[in-house]
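fold-stage: in
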Amino acid sequence: MFVIIGYIVVCASVFGGFAMAGGHLAALFQPLELLMIGGAALGAFFVGNDMKSIKATAAAFPTLFKGSKFTKKLYLDLLAMMFDILTKIRKDGMMAIEKDVEDPEQSTIFTKYPNLLHDHHLIDFICDYLRLMLSGNMDAFQIENLMDNEIETHHNEGHVPVHCIARLGDGLPAFGIVAAVMGVVHTMESIGIPPSELGLLIAHALVGTFLGILLAYGFVGPLSSLCEQKLNESTKIYQTVKVVLLASLNGYAPTIAIEFGRKVLYSTERPSFIELEDHIKQNKSR
C-alpha cells in the first residue's frame, strides 16, 4: 500500500509541479521513449543475470507491494510455539517430540499455529535442528555454527533480488540518455523543418533523459531498498529460533529460553514480557 502511495506522491509532485509551472503534460507522454528505455533495461537485466536470479527477482517483486507478515502477533505465536516444544522436552524428554518433528503437519503442537505452519522454510529450520538435538551427537557450539552458516546462506540468497533490482535502477538513467541521443539524432536529420516543429523534436528527445532518471530514482531504486528491509525482517525470525534453541541446549528453562528470543526482536515487533506471558496462557487454555 505504501509503495503505491509513494508512487502517487512522486507522480503528483513531478507532473503536478511541471503543470503548475505552465508545462504541457502531453509533451511528456512519449511511449516510444518508454519503449526504448524499458526494453533496453529489461534486455540488459536478462543478459546480466542467470535464470536462478531472474526467478528469484520475479518471485520477490510482488511481495514488495504487500505489507510485512512479520508482525508482533506472528512473533507471539512463534515464541509460544517454541515454549510448547521446550516444555514438552523438559517434561517428557527429548524423544517425546520425535513424532512432532518427523510430521509437523500432524503434530498437536505445530497445528496450533497455522500461520507458522504455512511457512515451510521456517518449520523445516526448526525441525531440522530439533532433529539434530535428538541425535545427541552435537554440542551447542557445533549447532550454533551450523545455524549461523544456514542463516548466512538464506541471507545471501535473499540479497540476489536486492542486487538485481538495484542494478536495474542504476542502468535506467544511462538508457534514458541513449533514448535522448536517439531523439537528438532524429532532430538533426530533420534540421530543414520549421523551427516550431524542430523545437518539439528537441523537447521529445529531452524527455528520454527525464524518464530514465525519474524511473531510476522515483520508482525502481526505492524498491531495492524496500527489498533489503524485507530481507532483514525475514532473517530475524530465524535468528530468534536460533537463540531460543541454543538457550535450551545450554540448560535454561523454557521461560528463560523464550525470553532470550524475545530480546532478539526489533523493538517495533517485540512483545512485552506480560504480553508474551498472557499469550502463552491463552494458548494453554485452548
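fold-stage: in (second)
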Amino acid sequence: MTPIAGQPVLTANEMRAAEQQAIDAGGSVEALMERAGREVARAVARLASRAPVLVLCGPGNNGGDGYVAARFLAGIGLDVRVAASAAPATAAARAARAGWSGPVTPVADAQPAAILVDALFGTGLKRPLDPALADCLRTLAGKARRTIAVDLPSGVTTDDARTLGDVPIFDVTLALGAFKPAHLLQPAARHCGETRLLDIGVDVRSDLHVIEKPSLRTPDADSHKYNRGMVTIVGGAMTGASLLAAEAAMRAGAGYVALLGGQGGGPHALVHKSFDDDALDDDRIGALLIGPGLGRDDGAARRLDRALATAHRLVLDGDALHLLKDRMAVLESRAAPVILTPHAGEFAALFGEGEGSKIDRARAAARETGAIVVFKGADTVVAAPDGRARIVGDTNDWLSTAGTGDVLAGVISAMLAGGMPPFEAATAGVWLHADAARRLGAAFIADDLAAMLTESRASL
C-alpha cells in the first residue's frame, strides 16, 4: 500500500489530463481500465478473505473498472456477483462488460453480500444519485460486512468534497492513480474511510500534496538560544492563549521565547517583558506572533498596528485576524513574510465565503494577500501565493477544543524563527501539531497538546 504522506492530489480535470497523457503516449482507455480493474481486484481480494463479493457497476468507466475487477476476482476463485445500475455507456465500459462472463442483475434486484464494492460512479459526479439507486446502495452497504469504494464513494463530488445526498460511510476507498481532494477534504473524506492508493500506471504531478514529515535541523555544538530561533509573542486580554502559544513555541524547538505585555505565568524559561518599542525593535527576533488572546479593543488594535509596522517575520492568529480586515493594504505592502492561520470563521470574516473548494479558497487568499495561509480545521490546508498547497491527510477529531489553534500558532512561529522559509515553516508546524495530537489519542486539552510537542519534535 502506497503511503499517503507527500503524495500529489489531483482534481478531476487534472486526473483526466494525466490519463489522456498516458493514452497519447501509446496507451489506451481499455489498457488503463484493465490495469485499474486488476489492481482493484488485488486490493479487494486481500480485504475479502475469501468472502462473497458483490460488485455494483455504473454506466461509465468507473463501472468498467468494476467489471474488470469482477473478472479477475472470479478468476482467482472468489464467489463474485455483479449488479449494474444501467448498461455501459462508453466503448471501454462495454468492452469490460463483454469480458465478464457471469450474469449481471439490476442493482434493484441485487442480494446483499459480505463484501460490497461500489463502482457506480467515480470522479466527476455533479448531481445526486437517483433516489431509488441511492436507497439500494445504502441498503446493500448496511448489510455488508465490509464496504469498498472504487476511486470515490458514489455520491460525493471530487474537487470540493460535497456529499450529494445520504452517502454511506465506506470502510475503504481505493484511489485510482492519485489521491483526489475528496479523499482529504470534509465532509467527503469521512465517507471514504481508509483511503488506499492504487498505481494504475499514470504519471501524476501537482502543486498540491499531502503534508509529509518535515526534515528539521537539530541543535549542534555551535547552537545557542538565538540561532535556534527567537520567538516574540504579543500578549493581550486573555493570558492563557498567549501562554499556550509560548509553551508550544518552546517545545517545538525555539531557543528563546519572550511574551510581551502578558500577566506572568507559564514555564520558568519563558521571558516576560513589557510591550514597548525597545522590545519590538530587537533585531534578534526571528518571528513575531500576535493574535492569541489579544482582544479586539483599541489597545489590541494599536498593538497590531505596531507589529505590522515592524520588519519582522509575522504570524497572525486569532483576534489579530479579526482586526486585520481594515488593514489588508498594510499587510499586502509588507516586505517581510507573513503567515495567517485562520479557522473557518476567521477566514470568512477576512475573505468572505468565496467559491470553490477549501483548497481553492486558501490559494485565492494567499494570492490576494501575498501571505502564507493556513486554513485550519478538520482538513487543514496550507497555501502559498505561487499556488503551492499542502493538506493534512489525517487529523484527530479531539483537536476540536479551545486553545489548540493557539498551540499551532506557537509551533509555526518556532519553525519560522528557526530560519525555515515561510511555506515550509507553516507545513512543518501543521505536521508537528497533528503528530502531537496523534500521540495523545483522545480526550486531551490544549495544555496536553503543547506538552506533547516535545516528543513530536524529538522524533524528527
